[in-house]
Amino acid sequence: MIHFVGAGPGAADLITLRGKKLIEAADVIVYAGSLVNPQLLEDRKKDCEVHNSAYMTLEEVIEVMACAEEEGKCTVRLHTGDPSIYGAVREQMDELSRRGIDYEVCPGVSSFCGAAAALKAEYTLPGVSQSVIISRTEGRTKVPERETVRSFAAHQATMVIFLSAGLLPRLQRELMEGGYPPSTPAAIVYKATWPEERICRCTVEALADTAEREGIRKTALIIVGRFLDGAGQRSELYHPAFTTEFRKGRTSEDR
Ligand code: SAH
User: Fold this and answer.
1) Distance separating alpha carbons of residues 113 and 144, to the nearest angstrom
2) N or C end of the chain: smaller count of CB under 10 Å?
3) Whether residue 111 has its Cβ less than 6 Å from ligand 1
């Protein structure tokens, strides 16, 4: 069996219990060396074989998995954050399916959740934004024309932008041309939950300058939206007058 496992955003204790158990049981681990915390490998069995996928092609990764499978071994494919977000897992799954090899997925804490924790923020503030747009700037990987940052910016919703810390002048321009006022609050969260985590708060118009000043060019999320102001209305869910399945709301006469 092949297990795709989310390693979490960085801190070694932010993997799930299931993910940790799978690492402890693995005979073979293929990990994304560029972003997975190597401390996670310390739990492996003594004779566990380890491969760093940063130096491998898709074909080589599949070969390692297929050989392990033939020998009846347990393989863990360790991906940063959650495998479903920019994880390049589909191509591995398709090839495994084609070869009749079974696989499972163990989710992880994505870095966009790690960044919210670092910011001590809620992305979905009532009265401010009820949507989180996860996207990226186009780099060597193309982004469909109907999904440009510029087009999403028109919503002025909360936006979390991956894989774009090295493309900030362009990102900043697209955010403003698309509809965010230049003074919209923004943050650059570098290596969220790692010991070297850094948070740089600024505005959309200052994103490129801020990153340059701080020397941040990769492993960062760009986060945009008025939720960063902290202002918002209180939730209905915990309002005394709001009735839910579990709690009957009181009118002002009841109180
Ligand atoms: N599957 C991962 C994302 C992989 S794409 C996840 O769920 O988080 C790699 C990009 O993720 C990086 O370029 C960066 O934009 C972001 N990233 C990953 N870990 C990060 C962290 N700890 N802090 C900030 N950004 C991170």
Assistant:
1) 25
2) C
3) yes
Q: Which of 37, 135, 221, 224 to mutate to test the pocket of ligand 1 (most atoms within 8 A of CB)?
A: 221
Domains: count for the chain: 2
CB-ligand 1 contact for 4 (6 Å cutoff)? no
pLDDT surpasses 70 at 124: yes
Judge whether 61 lies within some domain.
yes
149: domain CATH number? 3.30.950.10
**Are the CB atoms for 31 and 52 separated by under 8 Å?**
yes
Q: What is the β-pairing status of strands 185-190 and 198-203?
A: antiparallel
Q: How many residues does the chain have?
A: 255
What is the CA(81)–ligand 1 centre distance, in A?
7
What integer pLDDT is reported at residue 236 of this predicted model? 84
Residue 37 in this model has a pLDDT that exceeds 70: yes
**pLDDT (tens digit, 9 = 90+) per residue, 57-107?**
999 999 999 999 999 999 999 999 999 999 999 999 999 999 999 999 999
Domain that holds residue 149: 111-229
Classify residue 36: in a domain, yes or no: yes
